[in-house]
Amino acid sequence: MANRVEALEKSLASLRGDLSGLRAQSEKLATSVNDVKSAPRESAPSVDLSAINERIAQVERAARAQASETAQAGAKPADDVPLRRVVAASVLDVSVRQGEPYVAALAAAKSLAENADALKPLDGFAVTGVPSAASLSRELLTLVPKLSPAQENATGGSGIVDRLQAGAAKLVRIERNDGVGNDRGAVVARVTAAALRNDFAEARRELKTLAPADRAAAQGWLDKTDARDAALAASRQFASEAMAALAKPGQ
Asked: How many CA atoms lie within 13 A of 251 on its CB side?
């Protein structure tokens, strides 16, 4: 026990010596710090940041300009010409097919069409509307009497040969009026039958088999049917192209 107490006293003395040394070092360090604080400081050289500041300013100005342009572009209405063209084409096509007048619809379509000349076939029926198959058939029936072969006048001769010739001509004409054959009477009979069932396309085909002189009375009617086909085709083509343009990417 005495030995242990002696060892502890030695350790305590050593610790006291170490503590005194630490105090001396601490006081010395404090003195050094105070000296540093009291010493005059040399000013650090200033760094020239003007170029960097100017570059930052340029970037900020460019960003503000871009933001302004984006805002203005967003405020503008989107280019809806393809969509308006589809609407105009649809309205026009419906009016054309229903036989209604379409002056305003045609004007709107032409203002939006990429090629307004393609709609010229529609000009002729804009005020009256495109005629229907039934109306064309009724009109043709009024022309049938002008297409029929002229009745042969009774011969002035009183001889038996003249009377037999006149009778034979009538017989031939009656037999050919049943629609069989390619003579004028047979063709007119088939034209009449087609018109009665509102098949103006068949009536037109039969009429075109006649010689130009024989169908002269119905030539205006034939021209009208061709114009009708052209108008319907132009309206249908315009509607198809408008829809195709709307379906393209970016439209």
From this structure: 14
The proportion of the chain whose per-residue pLDDT surpasses 70, expressed as a percent, equals 72
CA dist 203 and 139 (Å) reads 12
Taking alpha carbons only, the member of 133, 150, 147 closest to residue 195 is: 133
Task: List, for residues 58-86, the tens digit of each pLDDT value.
Answer: 767 777 776 676 666 555 555 588 888 88
Contact 123, 106 (CB under 8 A): yes
Reference 215, options 150, 157, 165, 143; nearest CA is: 143
108 CB-near residues (< 8 Å, 6+ apart): 88, 91, 92
Sequence ranges of the domains in the chain:
81-247
What token pair was written down for 205?
């085909």
In whole angstroms, give the CA distance from residue 172 to residue 191: 19
What span, in angstroms and rounded, lies between the C-alpha atoms of 64 and 74?
Answer: 15
Return the structure tokens found at 8.
Answer: 């502890």
